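Recall the central idea of this unit: under ordinary conditions, the amino acid sequence of a chain determines the structure it adopts. In this exercise we apply that idea directly, starting from the sequence alone.
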Amino acid sequence: MEIMIGFIGLGLMGRPMALNLLKRGFKLAVFNRSRGPVDELVGFGAVGCSSASEVAELSETIIMMLPDEPEVRQVLTGENGVLKTMRKGGIVIDMSTVSPMFSREMAALVRERGGEMLDAPVSGSTMAAEQGSLTIMVGGRYETYEKVKPVLEAMGKNIYYMGESGSGSLTKLCNQVAVAVNLLGACETLIVASKAGLDLNKVIEVISSGAGGSWQLTNLGPRMVVKDFRPGFKVKHLRKDLRMVRETAERLGLCLPAVGLVSEFVKALDQLGHGEDGTQALITLLENLSNTRVG
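Accordingly, the structure predicted from this sequence is:
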């Protein structure tokens, strides 16, 4: 049986993304470090694999959605990695959030094996992943992007080609700057409103309708009010992303004071045991610093 698409990494985001590919009629081979999500996808018609190399053997295009650079490197270059069995002319789409330098390094390795690689990180919550409405920012050869665009459109609503290898990853880091600074702004907004005795849900509604609105306030603000810290995007992953932002800023000779501040807050939040929580848990740190409670 010929499998057109391989998917490696069936976590919080990868699982619904893979499901959307199946719903759109793509044949899918899947692999994940833990077996549970693989068995679930098999129930929806996917072919379960026992290694990344088995996925690559069956697939013309391989998608990766992994937590960090070490996992991406292992999946690509490890003993049972993609590059062991990747077909000549195969395409690797890395949808993980990694640094642009790392994306370029991995793309060069894939090209050495006769393939092409795109860095195509995403923006959006788990709800957007489930709905197939993610924003996807792509770096790599334009011709390769054109070939796989229908695959990307099965997972995302807004697909943007950003330029050569690393451009997608660099755009995602820019996105994370906006995410982090807006997240802190949403927390501080609710701290002030709560201490002043305002109706928090009305404050969120009013500000969201005007120039001060943000996705973070509109979508995560209500969760902060009721202390719902179920993850759409985990604290530990934002901490990792902000580390990459700061490393990139250092290479570019940039001063990003707001990023530095939020990065330290997120690191402290992770160290306090909130790493698996959603990023909206940042409100707890601001509550402690202000000696007040929201909601």
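The two ends are 55 Å apart (CA to CA).
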